[in-house]
């Protein structure tokens, strides 16, 4: 019987192709590491309409354009990108992991970098939610987009106390902020006093419908009241895409966000994480910084790969020198 060749073992598998995953791929490809980048699509960054929050782009840049620039850079270094999903991830031994892809194929790797991000909880009453986000009528991050408010009439929609905290933050940028309470939640006396102190209007009636009309966000309450805002910030939370790591026993916080050390390594040796999947500030600049830290630690933690001419450039299609 012919011998079955064991699968090739790569240096690092990067799962997720948002800003964190793409940045890690750039670093590791430049380190001549043999890597695979899993691009499952649906990056949260794709929803950014135009951000002035990312350094180096004074006119602003959209999430789609930023990701495209990063992809071009990854491809320029010859990194291998797989457009698929990881169905499962397991540890084979102390030195190896195995990923099963959605088509049933398997990849063995010595290191894994998880950059799978989060998925925002959007208002169920909101019609065409992704169109509303791309049109900048519904925004997901007050830190990223608060500066864009500039005196506009803003609604904050969510659980009472969380919404009030976000509303107070947005008072930095406008004096017209309304909290629309989602569900049956109630705010404590201190939170209500805080809202009153900052002149934040409170609406307790349930929302029946939310839609975009004439570049405004219209909300219809169950009592028939129609509210109109320039933009709405939902504060309903998010789902952390950390399942692959949790099944390996990685430590997380109460929301499922992964806990990492200073080198972005989880509690599972060899398993690293960067970006929104990590318990940290959810910012693109934070994600890229974490990815740089993780990629460098991964490279330094593997055996040296000394240069031996163009043929030795592992993980890239051609040797590149600047």
Characterization of this structure:
The protein has eight helices and 16 strands. It is an alpha/beta fold and 322 residues long. The longest helix is centred in the C-terminal third of the chain and has 18 residues, at 284-301. The termini are far apart. The relative contact order is 0.18.
Structural class: alpha/beta
What Rg do the Cα atoms give? Answer: 23 Å
User: Which consecutive residue ranges, at least 5 long each, have pLDDT under 50?
Assistant: 1-6, 314-322
What global shape is seen? Answer: elongated
Residue share in β-strands: 15-25%
The main β sheet shows up as: 7 strands, mixed
Proportion of residues in helical segments: 25-40%
- Terminal CA distance reads 49 Å
Order of helices and strands: EHEHEEEEEHHEHEHEEEEEEHEH
Roughly what is the average pLDDT, rounded to an integer? 92
Helices, by number, come to 8
DSSP, total strands: 16
Structure described in brief:
With 322 residues, the protein is α/β, with parallel strands linked by helices. It has helices spanning 19-30, 63-76, 129-134, 142-149, 160-170, 189-197, 243-246, 284-301; strands spanning 9-15, 35-38, 80-82, 86-91, 97-101, 106-114, 118-120, 154-158, 177-181, 201-203, 207-213, 216-221, 226-229, 231-235, 238-240, 271-273.
Considering the chains and any ligands shown, give keywords for the structure.
322 residues; alpha/beta; seven-stranded mixed beta sheet; four-stranded parallel beta sheet; 8 helices; 25% helix; disordered N terminus
């Amino acid at each position: 019987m012919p011998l079955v060749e064991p699968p090739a073992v790569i240096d690092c598998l990067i799962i997720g192709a948002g800003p964190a995953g793409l940045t890690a791929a750039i670093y590791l490809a430049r380190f001549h590491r043999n890597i695979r980048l899993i691009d499952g699509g649906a990056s949260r960054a794709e929803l950014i309409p135009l951000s002035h929050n990312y350094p180096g782009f004074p006119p602003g840049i959209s999430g789609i354009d930023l990701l495209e620039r990063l992809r071009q850079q990854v491809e320029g270094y010859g990194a291998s990108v797989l457009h698929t999903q990881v169905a499962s991830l397991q540890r084979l031994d102390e030195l190896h992991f195995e990923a099963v892809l959605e088509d049933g194929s398997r990849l063995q790797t010595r290191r894994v970098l998880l950059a799978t991000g989060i998925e925002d909880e959007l208002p169920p009453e909101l019609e065409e939610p992704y169109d509303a986000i791309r049109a900048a009528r519904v925004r997901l991050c007050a830190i990223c987009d608060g500066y864009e408010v500039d005196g506009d009439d803003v609604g904050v929609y969510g659980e009472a106390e969380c919404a009030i905290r976000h509303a107070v933050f947005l008072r930095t940028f406008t004096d017209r902020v309304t909290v629309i309470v989602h569900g049956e939640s109630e705010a404590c006396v201190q939170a209500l006093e805080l809202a009153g102190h900052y002149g934040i209007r409170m609406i307790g009636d349930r929302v029946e419908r939310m839609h975009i009309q004439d570049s405004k966000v219209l909300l219809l309450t169950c009592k028939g009241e129609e509210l109109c805002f320039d933009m709405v910030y939902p504060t309903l939370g998010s789902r952390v895409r950390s399942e692959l790591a949790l099944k390996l026993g990685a430590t997380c916080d109460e929301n499922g966000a992964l806990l990492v050390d200073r080198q972005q390594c989880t509690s599972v040796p060899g398993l690293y994480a960067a970006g929104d999947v990590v318990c940290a500030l959810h910012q693109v600049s934070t994600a890229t910084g974490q990815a740089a830290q993780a990629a460098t630690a991964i490279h330094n933690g593997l055996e040296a790969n000394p240069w031996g001419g163009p043929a030795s450039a592992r993980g890239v299609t051609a040797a590149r020198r600047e």
